[in-house]
Design brief:
The protein is built from ten helices and 14 strands. By secondary structure, the protein is α/β, with parallel strands linked by helices. Strand 2 and strand 3 form a beta hairpin. It is globular and about 55 Å long.
Length: about 250
């Protein structure tokens, strides 16, 4: 009888362990990122996803019992990729906007950013020159600043033309080679660009500041709860300050 009970007990434990393994396997996440949005997300020289958001999500995933991988997608269609379940979330420097909130939910904000205009380092162009001087301005396709500039130019009669890019660094390259007069982008990528290239920020251009959050499908309520808790723990930990220092985003 003892041996029989022992066999049954071992069998039950095996089933419980198998169920536990299946549960962990079911907690795999795919995070969609912008492949060229330093310092928040980018693919490094070895082909590995890196950046502030990538490292933050790695910490959160480990803390909350998830296994995460990061895959690059075109930014202009990344929300569609989320809605069609090609990815599970977007932790990659995404602004919380009214238009996006109609389609997805966001975690609590973790960073506040503002949009600035970038020009050549030796340029004497002013914001007024760029907005009203018949200049060609670069913006990343699918960003909030691209929409804002398009709407405001039409509303205010600004004499400017927008040229769309797949990433802010590509717009910076066209500033340097003279194809565009300037480019609008978030302040952190602008700071990153100014540290690497002969460009500078000439300040904000009228757009209000925005918060970054992680985008998650509306029906994924448990994932939202877990990510908010993970963010809370990360931001209260020493690692948060280490990441801010490492990527120089303050």
């Amino acid at each position: 009888m003892f041996k029989r009970n022992l066999v049954i007990l071992v069998g039950i434990m095996a089933l419980l362990l198998a169920g536990s393994s299946q549960a962990l396997a079911g907690k795999k996440l795919v995070n969609g990122i912008d492949a060229n949005f330093p310092p928040f997300a980018f693919i490094d020289k070895t082909g590995t996803p890196s950046g502030f958001d990538v490292e933050a999500m790695n910490w959160i995933a480990k803390e909350m019992g998830y296994e995460v991988t990061h895959k690059a997608f075109d930014w202009d269609g990344i929300v569609t990729s989320l809605l069609t379940k090609k990815i599970d979330m977007v932790a990659s420097g995404m602004s919380i906007t009214e238009d996006r909130l109609k389609m997805v939910n966001f975690t609590n904000p973790y960073w506040k950013i503002k949009q600035v205009m970038v020009v050549k380092k030796e340029s004497d162009l002013s914001l007024d020159d760029l907005l009203r001087g018949n200049k060609l301005i670069g913006v990343q396709q699918g960003t909030s600043e691209a929409k804002w500039l398009k709407d405001e130019a039409k509303k205010n009669g600004w004499n400017l033309e927008l040229r769309y890019y797949n990433s802010s660094p590509l717009a910076v390259e066209d500033i340097l080679n003279g194809r565009i007069a300037g480019a609008a982008m978030d302040d952190a990528p602008a700071k990153d660009a100014a540290g690497k290239k002969a460009v500078k920020s000439i300040g904000t251009f009228g757009m209000h500041s925005e918060d970054f959050g992680y985008a998650i499908r509306k029906e994924d309520t448990q994932l939202m709860t877990d990510m908010n808790e993970g963010l809370k723990r990360l931001m209260a930990s020493p690692h948060w300050k280490e990441l801010i220092k490492k990527y120089d985003i303050k």
